[in-house]
Design goal:
491 residues; mainly alpha
Length: 491
């Protein structure tokens, strides 16, 4: 009898495991935040959640269902499954039938997230309820898959999620919005998402001092289709400024400010426009107004620090780059203000690489190179850095070694590291220029420096200057042969 009970228990356990395996297999077929492989590091969760809250509270948009989906997923990653369910309920409320323009297909993401969440909470029966809802809807749309529908709304949802997760997801987000637009080229939401991601990529893939202009037409199209969207107008203004049409851009800034919708959110981009125009005080004014609404924003604190850095540059220019007396005192005071904001930014977002570089720069400004070194070591040892970010870190650390540490050897090492990341970029070009200046200076001191000649040859080769590269390599080779011969003939 006892053996029979044991056997029954084993069979029940196997049956339960088989059922759970079946549920897991079905879950993996869903298209939702749990299956999109969103590039989110654990150290980024707090800042991402803060940015999501800012968008929910201050960005007045018709396209906000996806942000509640993302919030639910972030809360799950933080172990807050009960709160994640509440976020999905808010997304579901926004998808009620009376909300015209919201397709039934959108519910598939909500239901998919519910199913995954209940599965992780150890409630497979409830997960199956939502899997059944998905399956029923897929049948209604005559989908070839039981749990997946291929449609532009789904591509758009995935695009929004990837866009919010930072640079690692930008190319995938762009592909999602492109695919959605192929199906519905006049859709206002798809055009908005595509305009935003191309704007971000113009800066992310920057190869010259001025970001690319690829996003200009998509932004104009998005504004045309969404004439009340102040946020898109502010981005268009910044892009017009990039391409030398600042006066035209300022008209869109004024339009964005005249619309009370999303003002607290739009202020940050208005501030960016005026800082780049050279109006640091006006920029600070808008940033401080924005900060009143979102006091813990890493982005805003970083931008305030950048504004203070701009004020330091203005003082230095006015003093012919040799500030003394009161000018020097003002620079130290402003640098310490910048430090306080950069410090706050990296506390809120520990993966904020450029903010660490700016922070190190300000410590250098007040003469604290030991602290700057500590900061650089911290950022150099970060995990999962994108190649573009690594290039930037290597360039700035190379400059630090050259000008503060006076170590030409280490400077060359880090400039070369930046250059060896082969992706063309503005930062890589600057690294090539910085290294060329350094080795040229070394060759002025010693024209027989074989290493410097070899590096100069490499730099000419990278720039496509093959004749000059060949001259450098031949000269270095002759010097190396002569050196070997002289060693061979020495007594």
């Amino acid at each position: 009898m006892q053996n029979l009970e044991i056997q029954l228990t084993i069979e029940q356990h196997r049956s339960k495991n088989a059922d759970e395996d079946q549920v897991k297999d079905r879950l993996e077929q869903l298209r939702c935040h749990f299956t999109w492989k969103l590039p989110i590091e654990d150290s980024e969760l707090t800042d991402l959640e803060s940015r999501v809250f800012d968008e929910i509270e201050f960005l007045d948009t018709k396209f906000n269902v996806g942000i509640y989906h993302l919030l639910a997923y972030v809360r799950h990653l933080k172990g807050q499954n009960k709160e994640a369910l509440e976020s999905l309920k808010e997304a579901e409320d926004l998808l009620q039938p009376e909300n015209a323009g919201q397709s039934d297909v959108r519910r598939l993401v909500t239901w998919g997230n519910y199913a995954w969440l209940y599965y992780h909470m150890g409630r497979p029966a409830e997960a199956q309820i939502y899997l059944d809802k998905v399956e029923s809807t897929c049948k209604k749309f005559a989908s070839a898959s039981r749990y997946t529908v291929e449609c532009p709304e789904m591509d758009c949802e995935e695009g929004w999620a990837l866009l919010k997760c930072g640079g690692k997801g930008y190319e995938r987000a762009k592909a999602c919005f492109e695919k959605a637009l192929e199906a519905e080229p006049e859709n206002p939401e798809f055009n908005t998402g595509y305009a935003i991601i191309t704007y971000r990529l113009d800066r992310f893939n920057q190869t010259t001092e001025v970001p690319g202009a690829f996003s200009l037409d998509p932004l104009k199209r998005a504004v045309q289709l969404n004439p009340e969207d102040s946020y898109i107008k502010a981005l268009l203004a910044l892009k017009l400024q990039d391409v030398g049409q600042e006066d035209e851009g300022e008209k869109y800034i004024e339009e964005a400010l005249n619309n009370t919708s999303s003002q607290a959110y739009v202020f940050r981009y208005v501030a960016m426009f005026y800082r780049r125009k050279g109006s640091s005080d006006k920029s600070l004014q808008f940033l401080k107004m924005a900060l009143q609404a979102t006091p813990s924003s890493a982005f805003l604190h970083h931008q305030i620090g950048i504004c203070y850095r701009s004020k330091i540059i203005e003082i230095k220019k006015a003093a012919n780059w040799q500030p003394r007396g009161r000018d020097r005192e003002n620079i130290d005071r402003i640098a310490r203000l910048a430090i306080s904001h950069f410090e706050f930014a990296v506390e809120q977002k520990p993966t904020f690489e450029i903010a660490y570089i700016n922070l190190a720069d300000m410590y250098i400004e007040i003469g604290n190179c030991i602290k700057a070194e500590d900061i650089y070591q911290k950022v150099l040892h970060m995990k999962s850095l994108e190649e573009e970010k690594l290039q930037e870190i290597y360039l700035y650390y190379g400059r630090f070694q050259e000008f503060q540490r006076k170590s030409e050897v280490d400077a060359i090492t880090y400039y070369l590291k930046a250059i060896k990341i082969g992706k063309p970029s503005f930062v890589r070009n600057k690294s090539i220029s910085a290294l060329e200046k350094l080795v040229s200076k070394k060759l002025q001191r010693n024209a027989s420096d074989i290493e410097s000649l070899s590096i100069l040859g490499l730099l000419h080769k990278l720039k496509g200057e093959m004749n000059q590269a060949l001259e450098c390599y031949e000269c270095a080779l002759r010097l190396a042969v002569n050196s070997e011969n002289s060693v061979g003939h020495s007594p």
